[in-house]
């Protein structure tokens, strides 16, 4: 899965860049946080 977030989930800024070896890893230049996005499945749980 390749999808880029538009906003940092922690600070809400848009200064994100891909980070790390793991797919879905991003780094926020604004709040200096690294995070990993993961697909949660389809439909309501
Ligand atoms: Zn941030």
How is the secondary structure organized here?
Layout: E1 16-18, E2 25-28, E3 34-36
Helical proportion, percent range: under 10%
Structural class: mainly beta
The total of beta strands comes to 3
Measured on Cα atoms, how large is the radius of gyration?
Answer: 11 Å
Tell me the distance between the termini.
20 Å
What do you see in this structure?
This protein is an all-beta fold and 45 residues long. It has one domain. Helix content is 0%, strand content 22%. It is globular. The relative contact order is 0.29. The structure holds zinc ion.
Brief overview, please?
Helix content is 0%, strand content 22%. The chain is mostly beta strands.
Features:
0% helix, binds zinc ion, 45 residues, globular, mainly beta
